[in-house]
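INFO batch 0412 | record 1 of 1 | parsing
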Amino acid sequence: MTAGPLLPDLAMTLVFVVMAMGMLLSAGGLLTWVERKQSAVMSDRVGANRAYIRLPFTQVRIIWLGLFHGMADGLKLLLKENFTPRAHDLLGYRLAPFVAFTPVLLVFGVVPFGGMLDPGALVPALAPWFGGRAYPMQVASLDAGLLVVFAVSGFSIIGAMLAGWASENKFSLLGGLRAGSQMISYELVMALTVLGLVLVYGTVDLRAAVAHQSGTVGGWLPAWGIVYQPVGAVLFLTAAIAENKRIPFDLPEAESELVAGYFTEYSAMKMGLFMLSEYVQIFVVAALFATLFLGGFNLPWMTDAGFAFPWGATVPLSQGVRVPLQLATFSAKVALLCLVQIQIRWSLPRFRYDQMLGLSWKLLLPASLANLALTVLVAWWQGRGA
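INFO prediction complete | emitting tokens
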């Protein structure tokens, strides 16, 4: 690459990194408030509404529906004593929170959150500098994006297992062992489910998968992944929630059995990283589901050129309209899926450990194999007909 386009490319990469980090960290903090409020509504309670900011020299309190509770929680974790026990392995103990948190951020790096962006067309003053180049709204545009998701996402479980082993605590060790067995059980289900989508889309590139979903099925129905793979969508979401160790799959924590599970011996911001990674992963799971099954950042019958309706009408969109619309569409889909995950968490009781493993190996795994086999047969039949 010549020195000419290097700086513009680097600038756009930094912009996308800042956008992605902003979405992830903002969602991680905001979802703590959403969970409190949503669980309160389900329980006929008011929810978090005590934290406030007082205007200087007045008695006016700004509460904003309890939004300041998340800020208070973060401040509390930052200021609390960082208690460190006599860990069996001090290096592993200190590394574990970062090993659990970092892969969650990296997975989102291959998720497209918008279409192609031409900065020169959006801001004409920058056109000479960018030279007409367009950039996919994605931190890392990789052809093998889906493979990267599975390669990186499993590392977060290593953080939980490392924390359980390095803490030299029997509750932590049991939580780490549970996290490992849970990952092995449900990662396989996720992989088999996604294989069906790979057969449908013919690619492991997430951006190409979104482009495929801009078409139609039967001439009018949006070609979303959930239309092609309705059973696969349910299996994927179930396995993803289990990967995130959320109720009803929170056996690695199970506070009524293991105190706090694998992070029992953690305090202050180290514990905060484990908690933040859980909420950020809710957002990442929602983003992956939206990308794979709900058309990603596009509305039905929408492409980067605009809308192409089944009855033949077309509505072209300028970049100044399309880019914000795609970002808003992606955000709305992800927000809705985050609410669904929180709804599930406050609706179901925790499984027993044998029930959690049995659900995977006795029900979800056979269902995912049957779904994949049926997808292969349909793909073969369509190819034979062609």
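INFO post-check: Residues 86-385 form one domain.
INFO record closed
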